[in-house]
Protein backbone atom coordinates (compact mmCIF):
# COMPACT_ATOMS: atom_id res chain seq x y z
CA UNK A 1 0.00 0.00 0.00
CA UNK A 2 1.02 3.63 -0.42
CA UNK A 3 1.53 5.81 2.65
CA UNK A 4 2.43 9.49 3.07
CA UNK A 5 5.48 9.68 5.33
CA UNK A 6 7.24 12.73 6.78
CA UNK A 7 10.98 12.32 7.38
CA UNK A 8 11.92 15.91 8.20
CA UNK A 9 10.84 19.43 7.30
CA UNK A 10 10.00 19.54 3.57
CA UNK A 11 10.94 15.87 3.24
CA UNK A 12 7.60 14.25 2.43
CA UNK A 13 7.57 10.89 0.67
CA UNK A 14 4.94 8.55 -0.75
CA UNK A 15 6.24 5.13 0.25
CA UNK A 16 5.19 1.55 -0.36
CA UNK A 17 4.50 -0.31 2.88
CA UNK A 18 3.08 -3.68 3.76
CA UNK A 19 -0.59 -3.73 4.79
CA UNK A 20 -0.97 -5.86 7.95
CA UNK A 21 -3.92 -8.11 8.67
CA UNK A 22 -6.36 -6.94 11.37
CA UNK A 23 -5.91 -8.59 14.75
CA UNK A 24 -8.26 -9.12 17.66
CA UNK A 25 -10.79 -6.29 17.84
CA UNK A 26 -9.34 -4.59 14.77
CA UNK A 27 -10.53 -3.77 11.27
CA UNK A 28 -8.83 -2.93 8.02
CA UNK A 29 -10.16 0.28 6.49
CA UNK A 30 -9.60 1.15 2.84
CA UNK A 31 -9.06 4.88 3.28
CA UNK A 32 -10.82 6.95 0.64
CA UNK A 33 -10.40 10.58 1.73
CA UNK A 34 -8.02 12.38 4.06
CA UNK A 35 -7.98 16.07 4.97
CA UNK A 36 -4.70 17.91 5.52
CA UNK A 37 -4.78 19.56 8.96
CA UNK A 38 -2.76 22.42 10.41
CA UNK A 39 -0.67 20.02 12.47
CA UNK A 40 0.17 18.01 9.32
CA UNK A 41 1.35 21.26 7.76
CA UNK A 42 3.52 22.07 10.79
CA UNK A 43 5.25 18.71 10.43
CA UNK A 44 5.67 19.32 6.69
CA UNK A 45 6.89 22.92 6.79
CA UNK A 46 8.80 22.94 10.10
CA UNK A 47 9.40 19.33 11.08
CA UNK A 48 7.11 19.80 14.09
CA UNK A 49 5.87 22.53 16.38
CA UNK A 50 7.28 23.85 19.62
CA UNK A 51 9.25 21.13 21.39
CA UNK A 52 7.50 18.39 19.38
CA UNK A 53 9.76 17.28 16.54
CA UNK A 54 9.77 14.45 14.03
CA UNK A 55 12.67 12.22 15.03
CA UNK A 56 11.80 9.11 13.03
CA UNK A 57 9.81 8.74 9.78
CA UNK A 58 6.08 9.02 10.56
CA UNK A 59 2.92 8.49 8.54
CA UNK A 60 0.88 11.70 8.64
CA UNK A 61 -2.87 12.30 8.72
CA UNK A 62 -5.80 12.08 11.11
CA UNK A 63 -8.85 13.45 9.24
CA UNK A 64 -9.96 10.35 7.32
CA UNK A 65 -12.90 8.30 6.12
CA UNK A 66 -13.06 5.03 4.24
CA UNK A 67 -14.64 1.63 3.82
CA UNK A 68 -14.29 -1.47 5.97
CA UNK A 69 -12.23 -3.96 3.95
CA UNK A 70 -11.73 -6.76 6.51
CA UNK A 71 -12.70 -7.67 10.07
CA UNK A 72 -10.42 -9.10 12.70
CA UNK A 73 -11.52 -11.69 15.27
CA UNK A 74 -14.04 -10.55 17.85
CA UNK A 75 -15.38 -7.55 15.92
CA UNK A 76 -19.12 -6.99 16.02
CA UNK A 77 -21.33 -4.14 14.91
CA UNK A 78 -19.36 -3.55 11.72
CA UNK A 79 -19.44 -5.28 8.34
CA UNK A 80 -17.23 -5.38 5.28
CA UNK A 81 -18.37 -2.56 3.03
CA UNK A 82 -19.47 -0.23 5.82
CA UNK A 83 -18.56 3.40 5.16
CA UNK A 84 -16.88 4.86 8.24
CA UNK A 85 -15.33 8.01 9.62
CA UNK A 86 -12.30 7.04 11.69
CA UNK A 87 -11.75 8.74 15.05
CA UNK A 88 -8.02 9.52 15.37
CA UNK A 89 -8.22 9.74 19.16
CA UNK A 90 -7.84 6.65 21.38
CA UNK A 91 -7.78 7.41 25.13
CA UNK A 92 -6.53 4.69 27.46
CA UNK A 93 -9.76 4.42 29.48
CA UNK A 94 -7.94 3.90 32.76
CA UNK A 95 -6.14 7.10 33.76
CA UNK A 96 -7.58 9.67 36.18
CA UNK A 97 -8.94 11.86 33.39
CA UNK A 98 -10.59 9.00 31.51
CA UNK A 99 -12.18 7.73 34.72
CA UNK A 100 -13.69 11.09 35.55
CA UNK A 101 -15.16 11.60 32.09
CA UNK A 102 -12.48 13.78 30.53
CA UNK A 103 -10.89 11.38 28.02
CA UNK A 104 -9.66 14.19 25.78
CA UNK A 105 -7.10 14.85 28.53
CA UNK A 106 -6.00 11.21 28.72
CA UNK A 107 -2.49 10.74 30.12
CA UNK A 108 -1.79 7.91 27.67
CA UNK A 109 -3.57 9.19 24.55
CA UNK A 110 -2.77 7.56 21.23
CA UNK A 111 -3.57 10.02 18.44
CA UNK A 112 -2.96 9.37 14.76
CA UNK A 113 -0.02 11.17 13.21
CA UNK A 114 1.57 12.48 16.41
CA UNK A 115 5.27 12.87 17.24
CA UNK A 116 4.49 13.65 20.89
CA UNK A 117 5.53 10.08 21.79
CA UNK A 118 8.41 7.92 20.74
CA UNK A 119 8.00 5.70 18.90
CA UNK A 120 5.79 8.18 17.09
CA UNK A 121 2.14 7.28 16.47
CA UNK A 122 1.75 6.72 12.74
CA UNK A 123 -1.15 8.48 11.09
CA UNK A 124 -3.89 7.42 8.71
CA UNK A 125 -2.69 8.74 5.35
CA UNK A 126 -2.31 5.28 3.87
CA UNK A 127 -4.32 3.15 1.49
CA UNK A 128 -5.10 0.54 4.15
CA UNK A 129 -5.41 1.47 7.81
CA UNK A 130 -5.55 -1.33 10.39
CA UNK A 131 -7.01 0.05 13.58
CA UNK A 132 -9.26 -0.64 16.55
CA UNK A 133 -12.87 -1.21 15.53
CA UNK A 134 -13.99 1.12 18.30
CA UNK A 135 -12.55 4.07 16.40
CA UNK A 136 -14.94 3.60 13.47
CA UNK A 137 -18.22 5.53 13.27
CA UNK A 138 -20.54 4.22 10.58
CA UNK A 139 -21.56 6.89 8.09
CA UNK A 140 -24.86 7.30 6.32
CA UNK A 141 -24.99 5.73 2.86
CA UNK A 142 -25.75 9.21 1.48
CA UNK A 143 -22.66 10.73 3.07
CA UNK A 144 -19.56 11.08 0.90
CA UNK A 145 -16.09 10.11 2.05
CA UNK A 146 -15.07 13.75 1.62
CA UNK A 147 -17.78 14.74 4.09
CA UNK A 148 -16.68 12.00 6.47
CA UNK A 149 -13.14 13.37 6.52
CA UNK A 150 -14.56 16.61 7.97
CA UNK A 151 -15.84 14.84 11.10
CA UNK A 152 -12.60 15.37 13.02
CA UNK A 153 -12.20 19.16 12.60
CA UNK A 154 -15.94 19.62 13.13
CA UNK A 155 -15.67 17.63 16.38
CA UNK A 156 -12.94 20.02 17.56
CA UNK A 157 -15.25 22.97 16.92
CA UNK A 158 -18.29 21.32 18.52
CA UNK A 159 -16.28 20.80 21.70
CA UNK A 160 -15.23 24.45 21.66
CA UNK A 161 -18.69 25.82 20.93
CA UNK A 162 -20.12 23.92 23.87
CA UNK A 163 -17.64 25.77 26.10
CA UNK A 164 -19.28 29.06 25.12
CA UNK A 165 -22.72 28.17 26.43
CA UNK A 166 -25.99 28.86 24.54
CA UNK A 167 -25.56 30.98 21.41
CA UNK A 168 -29.22 31.69 20.65
CA UNK A 169 -29.57 35.43 20.16
CA UNK A 170 -25.90 36.07 20.91
CA UNK A 171 -23.51 38.38 19.09
CA UNK A 172 -20.50 36.31 18.07
CA UNK A 173 -17.05 37.26 16.85
CA UNK A 174 -14.81 34.71 15.12
CA UNK A 175 -11.15 35.71 14.79
CA UNK A 176 -9.30 33.69 12.16
CA UNK A 177 -11.18 32.01 9.32
CA UNK A 178 -9.09 28.99 8.50
CA UNK A 179 -10.91 25.64 8.53
CA UNK A 180 -11.53 25.75 12.30
CA UNK A 181 -12.70 29.35 12.27
CA UNK A 182 -14.94 28.79 9.25
CA UNK A 183 -16.47 25.76 10.96
CA UNK A 184 -17.01 27.89 14.08
CA UNK A 185 -18.99 30.34 11.94
CA UNK A 186 -21.01 27.46 10.50
CA UNK A 187 -21.78 25.95 13.91
CA UNK A 188 -22.55 29.31 15.53
CA UNK A 189 -25.04 30.10 12.80
CA UNK A 190 -26.68 26.72 13.22
CA UNK A 191 -26.77 27.23 17.00
CA UNK A 192 -28.85 30.39 16.68
CA UNK A 193 -26.37 33.26 16.88
CA UNK A 194 -28.07 36.57 16.10
CA UNK A 195 -25.01 38.18 14.54
CA UNK A 196 -21.62 36.84 13.46
CA UNK A 197 -18.65 39.05 12.59
CA UNK A 198 -15.57 37.27 11.28
CA UNK A 199 -12.05 38.60 10.78
CA UNK A 200 -8.97 37.38 8.94
CA UNK A 201 -6.13 38.74 6.82
CA UNK A 202 -6.95 36.64 3.72
CA UNK A 203 -9.85 37.61 1.47
CA UNK A 204 -10.55 34.08 0.24
CA UNK A 205 -10.98 32.82 3.79
CA UNK A 206 -13.41 35.68 4.49
CA UNK A 207 -15.40 34.85 1.37
CA UNK A 208 -15.90 31.30 2.64
CA UNK A 209 -16.83 32.64 6.08
CA UNK A 210 -19.58 34.69 4.44
CA UNK A 211 -20.73 31.69 2.45
CA UNK A 212 -21.18 29.60 5.62
CA UNK A 213 -22.98 32.21 7.67
CA UNK A 214 -20.99 35.29 8.70
CA UNK A 215 -23.04 38.49 8.60
CA UNK A 216 -19.98 40.71 8.26
CA UNK A 217 -16.37 39.94 7.39
CA UNK A 218 -13.39 42.23 7.93
CA UNK A 219 -9.90 42.02 6.51
CA UNK A 220 -8.01 43.45 9.48
CA UNK A 221 -4.77 43.71 7.49
CA UNK A 222 -6.44 46.13 5.09
CA UNK A 223 -8.61 47.93 7.68
CA UNK A 224 -6.78 47.61 11.02
CA UNK A 225 -9.07 50.09 12.77
CA UNK A 226 -12.30 48.41 11.75
CA UNK A 227 -12.78 46.73 15.15
CA UNK A 228 -12.53 49.98 17.13
CA UNK A 229 -16.26 50.65 16.95
CA UNK A 230 -16.91 47.37 18.76
CA UNK A 231 -14.86 48.56 21.76
CA UNK A 232 -17.35 51.27 22.69
CA UNK A 233 -19.41 50.93 25.88
CA UNK A 234 -17.06 48.24 27.22
CA UNK A 235 -17.54 45.89 24.27
CA UNK A 236 -20.15 44.58 21.88
CA UNK A 237 -19.88 40.81 21.50
CA UNK A 238 -21.28 38.21 23.88
CA UNK A 239 -18.96 35.45 22.66
CA UNK A 240 -15.65 35.34 20.82
CA UNK A 241 -14.06 32.29 19.21
CA UNK A 242 -10.34 32.96 18.78
CA UNK A 243 -9.25 30.61 16.00
CA UNK A 244 -6.11 32.31 14.74
CA UNK A 245 -3.71 31.59 17.60
CA UNK A 246 -2.58 35.21 17.28
CA UNK A 247 -1.93 37.09 20.50
CA UNK A 248 -3.04 40.42 19.03
CA UNK A 249 -6.43 38.92 18.14
CA UNK A 250 -6.91 37.72 21.72
CA UNK A 251 -6.00 41.11 23.13
CA UNK A 252 -8.48 42.77 20.77
CA UNK A 253 -11.08 40.28 21.91
CA UNK A 254 -10.67 41.40 25.52
CA UNK A 255 -11.67 44.88 24.41
CA UNK A 256 -14.59 44.04 22.11
CA UNK A 257 -16.29 41.38 24.26
CA UNK A 258 -18.82 42.89 26.67
CA UNK A 259 -18.58 42.53 30.46
CA UNK A 260 -19.54 39.02 31.49
CA UNK A 261 -18.80 37.69 28.01
CA UNK A 262 -16.95 34.52 27.04
CA UNK A 263 -13.81 34.04 24.96
CA UNK A 264 -13.10 30.51 23.73
CA UNK A 265 -9.53 29.92 22.58
CA UNK A 266 -9.67 27.52 19.64
CA UNK A 267 -6.39 28.44 17.95
CA UNK A 268 -2.96 27.29 19.04
CA UNK A 269 -0.09 29.76 19.18
CA UNK A 270 2.83 30.87 21.27
CA UNK A 271 2.92 32.48 24.69
CA UNK A 272 0.79 35.62 24.93
CA UNK A 273 0.84 38.55 27.35
CA UNK A 274 -2.68 39.74 28.19
CA UNK A 275 -3.95 42.70 30.25
CA UNK A 276 -5.30 40.73 33.21
CA UNK A 277 -6.89 43.84 34.73
CA UNK A 278 -9.28 43.94 31.78
CA UNK A 279 -10.32 40.33 32.42
CA UNK A 280 -10.94 41.16 36.08
CA UNK A 281 -12.72 44.48 35.56
CA UNK A 282 -15.00 43.15 32.83
CA UNK A 283 -15.59 39.79 34.56
CA UNK A 284 -14.66 37.95 31.39
CA UNK A 285 -14.42 34.20 31.08
CA UNK A 286 -11.52 32.91 28.94
CA UNK A 287 -11.75 29.20 28.19
CA UNK A 288 -9.46 26.78 26.46
CA UNK A 289 -10.70 23.83 24.44
CA UNK A 290 -8.75 20.73 23.50
CA UNK A 291 -9.65 18.02 21.01
CA UNK A 292 -12.94 16.14 21.55
CA UNK A 293 -14.50 12.81 22.50
CA UNK A 294 -18.24 12.22 22.12
CA UNK A 295 -18.30 15.10 19.65
CA UNK A 296 -16.77 12.93 16.92
CA UNK A 297 -19.86 10.75 16.55
CA UNK A 298 -22.01 13.87 16.95
CA UNK A 299 -20.15 15.60 14.11
CA UNK A 300 -20.55 12.59 11.82
CA UNK A 301 -24.28 12.48 12.54
CA UNK A 302 -24.80 16.22 12.00
CA UNK A 303 -23.08 16.08 8.61
CA UNK A 304 -25.03 12.97 7.62
CA UNK A 305 -28.35 14.57 8.56
CA UNK A 306 -27.58 17.66 6.51
CA UNK A 307 -27.69 19.98 9.50
CA UNK A 308 -24.26 21.38 8.64
CA UNK A 309 -22.90 21.72 5.12
CA UNK A 310 -19.12 21.46 5.36
CA UNK A 311 -18.43 21.13 1.65
CA UNK A 312 -18.00 24.87 0.92
CA UNK A 313 -14.71 24.54 2.83
CA UNK A 314 -13.25 21.94 0.45
CA UNK A 315 -10.89 23.63 -2.00
CA UNK A 316 -9.46 20.69 -3.92
CA UNK A 317 -8.88 16.94 -3.82
CA UNK A 318 -5.65 15.44 -5.17
CA UNK A 319 -4.57 11.79 -5.49
CA UNK A 320 -2.07 10.28 -3.07
CA UNK A 321 0.55 10.24 -5.83
CA UNK A 322 0.45 14.06 -5.75
CA UNK A 323 0.77 14.34 -1.98
CA UNK A 324 3.52 16.94 -1.94
CA UNK A 325 1.57 19.12 -4.35
CA UNK A 326 -1.46 18.78 -2.05
CA UNK A 327 0.58 19.85 0.99
CA UNK A 328 2.06 22.81 -0.88
CA UNK A 329 -1.41 23.95 -1.90
CA UNK A 330 -2.80 23.47 1.62
CA UNK A 331 0.00 25.62 3.04
CA UNK A 332 -1.01 28.55 0.82
CA UNK A 333 -3.89 30.25 2.67
CA UNK A 334 -4.53 32.65 -0.20
CA UNK A 335 -5.35 29.70 -2.45
CA UNK A 336 -6.80 27.01 -0.22
CA UNK A 337 -9.07 26.40 2.76
CA UNK A 338 -9.17 22.60 3.06
CA UNK A 339 -7.30 20.23 0.76
CA UNK A 340 -8.05 16.53 0.80
CA UNK A 341 -6.10 13.57 -0.54
CA UNK A 342 -7.84 10.74 -2.37
CA UNK A 343 -6.85 7.15 -1.63
CA UNK A 344 -8.21 4.02 -3.31
CA UNK A 345 -10.26 5.78 -6.00
CA UNK A 346 -13.34 3.85 -7.06
CATH superfamily of the largest domain: Medium-chain alcohol dehydrogenases, catalytic domain
Query: How helix-rich are the residues, as a percent range?
Result: 10-25%
Provide the gyration radius in Å.
Answer: 20 Å
What's the CATH architecture name of the largest domain?
Alpha-Beta Complex
Spans where pLDDT lies below 50 across 5 or more residues: none
Main sheet overview: 7 strands, mixed
**Based on helices, strands and strand pairing, what is the structural class?**
alpha/beta
Would you report the number of β strands? 20
CATH topology of the largest domain: Quinone Oxidoreductase, Chain A, domain 1
Structure, explained:
- By secondary structure, the chain is of the alpha/beta class.
- The protein has helices at 38-46, 96-99, 145-148, 151-163, 179-190, 203-211, 247-256, 276-281, 295-304, 323-330, and strands spanning 2-8, 11-16, 26-35, 48-49, 52-53, 58-59, 63-71, 83-86, 89-90, 110-111, 128-132, 136-138, 171-175, 195-200, 216-219, 237-242, 257-265, 285-288, 314-319, 338-342.
- Strands 3, 7, 8, 11, 12, 19 and 20 form a 7-stranded mixed β-sheet that branches. Strands 15-14-13-16-17-18 form a 6-stranded parallel β-sheet, with helices on both faces. Strands 2-1-6 form a 3-stranded antiparallel β-sheet, with helices on one face.
- The longest helix has 13 residues, at 151-163.
- It is globular and about 65 Å long.
